[in-house]
Amino acid sequence: MNLEGDWVGGLEVKDTWLFIKAHFNPQKNVKTVTIPQKDIHKMVPIHFKAEPPHVYIEVEKDSQTFIFDGQVKDNTIVGDVTQSGEKGTFQLFRVADIEGTEDYFGLYKLETDRLILFGKRWSNTVYLEERRVVNVYPLTDATFFSEMGETIIFKDKRANIIWRQKDFEISGTKVTLYREEDVTFRNKEVTLSGTLALPVTEGPHPAVVLIHGSGAESREGYHFLADHLARHGIAALRYDKRGTGTSTGDWHYSTLKDLAEDALAGVHLLQTHKDIHPEKIGLLGTSQGAWIAPVAASRSQDVAFTVFISGAAVSPKKQELYRVEHELHYLGFSPFQVNLRVLGYSLQLFIAKIFQKIQKVLPVSKILPKDIVFALYLDWDFDVTPYLKKVTCPVVAVYGELDKTVPVQKSAAILEKALENHDFTMKIFPKGNHALLESEAGAWSEVPRLKERKFVPGYYDLISSWIAERTNK
Fold first, then answer.
1. What phi and psi, each to the nearest 5 degrees, are found at residue 422?
2. Pairing between strand 16-25 and 106-110?
3. Would the CA dihedral through 102, 106, 110, 115 be positive or negative?
4. What digits encode the pLDDT tens for the residues 144-196?
5. CB 3.0–4.6 Å: which of 47, 92, 146, 203 could bond 58 by disulfide?
6. How many CB atoms lie within 10 A of CB 335?
């Protein structure tokens, strides 16, 4: 009996259904159970027994106890569950390891007129419905299971789907509410690949280049926003960052100025497109992208507007120390432990700056692991203010009130001072975290623990309406 891997499914007790995810790694003796609605996350069972085909799991947290007693058969585990004395049933399905899930991405319309957009977000395959983001897991190469208890079956070369939940089943069809084009463009020796979403109405249209946050971000990170913009009359270019997807180069060895030039190369590509107005092209940067966007906008009069989302106006060093401190507090570390670890992180950043100076004489980046070499190319004392003061186009800045990744109030104050006497709009959404998801604590570690992942009301609408207003003048 091979239990290795991830399993997803649900339990039902007294007509209440709860999503379950279990992970088993016998080689490392790792066993965890997650029940998000009960605030149980990657919890190690207090009792576990696996004697083919029988599996027994007992999980306890606070006053809650869950006992799973089931049988393994054909990639399922089915059996009885006891939830704090109440009897019920459960069923788990083995998550399949398949490639090419992006082949399923796109917009589907169900018979009930629900619009479902499949894509990838935060390293998970998900679907977006209105404001809600739902994780889905592959069971076969054409069947997925959602954390809402839905079984989704793709048919007819992914043109149609069957949507099943309990005894209720409806069908859906892939729809085209805007056009998409695969594009490539160059910045010196780097070739960047992306997808341009275009409204179906007659152009020329305003357009925006979507700039990534930190890390290995591909075009998929902006799939949802590009979908919204294109359906609201605004063309959107999303592209694979250097070294991700099908783009060449390597973001690890790139400065903020390098990445700003990539974004401007995207602007210049859009200026040549017959369906895009060459004087109505802007930039939108999220997180680190909100440092890159003003650098790019300050260098070119071709940028018609800029949108900053969850961008720190303090230096990368101050932003990272702020993030680490608040993440540790959320995870339950004591004040002493937090101070000690923040001090240690400060030392790491100090060492990185020393290596940056050595790098100017000796190419130490060639012998360092990639996962730390990016620290040699990021200016940890970078000050965005001089670039903001050179920006001449309209600016809107969007934040989540509870964001614990960047210091929102301090950043807002810096932006307001740097952009005084400027066409500048600020919006801070209540309950929003760094991704503008409705949150309680705002720490990034909270995202997997959210009972529902919903974008704050009005987030996407604010962006599309602001761009439309500025480009229709």
1. -130, 160
2. unpaired
3. positive
4. 999 999 999 998 877 899 999 888 899 999 999 999 999 999 999 999 999 99
5. 47
6. 9
Helix, strand, coil % (nearest 5) of the chain? Answer: 30, 40, 30
469's enclosing H/E stretch is helix 459-471
Taking residue 128's Cβ as centre, other Cβ atoms within 10 Å add up to 21
DSSP state of 45: P
CA dihedral of residues 343, 345, 348, 349 (deg, nearest 10): -100
**Which residues does residue 338 pair with via DSSP β-bridges, in sequence order?**
none
Q: Where are the beta strands (DSSP E) in 131-228?
A: 132-138, 143-146, 151-155, 160-165, 168-174, 178-187, 190-199, 205-211
Are 256 and 264 in contact by the 8 Å Cβ rule? The answer is no
Residues constituting the chain: 473
How far apart are the C-alpha atoms of 32 and 147, rounded to whole Å? 17
Cα-trace Rg, the chain: 24
Torsions phi, psi for 59 (to 5 deg) = -120, 140
Q: Are strands 424-429 and 395-400 parallel, antiparallel or unpaired?
A: parallel
Number of neighbours of residue 238 by Cβ within 10 angstroms: 26
Task: Kindly state the tokens that stand for 284.
Answer: 């939108």
Residue 182, token pair as written in the block: 């695969």
Residue with tokens 């980046």: 365
- Tell me how far apart the alpha carbons of residues 65 and 71 are, in angstroms, rounded to a whole number: 20
Confidence of residue 473 (pLDDT cuts 50, 70, 90): low
What is the number of alpha carbons within 13 Å of residue 333 lying toward its C-beta? 15
Question: What is the distance between the alpha carbons of residues 70 and 455, in angstroms, rounded to a whole number?
Answer: 37
List CB contacts of 20: < 8 A, sequence separation 6 or more: 7, 8, 9, 10, 11, 33, 34, 35, 90, 92
For residue range 171-180, list pLDDT tens digits in order: 999 999 999 9
Domains contained in the chain, CATH given: 5-94 (2.40.128), 101-174 (2.40.128), 178-315+382-471 (3.40.50.1820), 317-376 (no CATH)
CB atoms within 10 A of CB 424: 16
**C-alpha to C-alpha distance for 111 and 91, rounded to whole angstroms:** 28
Orientation of helix 335-359 relative to helix 316-330, angle to 10°: 150
**Residue 258 to residue 375: CA distance in whole angstroms:** 15
Strands of 252-342 (E only): list them: 276-286, 306-309
Using DSSP's 3-state secondary structure scheme, residue 94 falls into strand
Using CB atoms within 10 A of its CB, is residue 344 exposed (0-12), middle (13-18) or buried (19+)?
exposed
The pTM of the whole model exceeds 0.85: yes
Distance, CA of 213 to CA of 405 (rounded, Å): 12
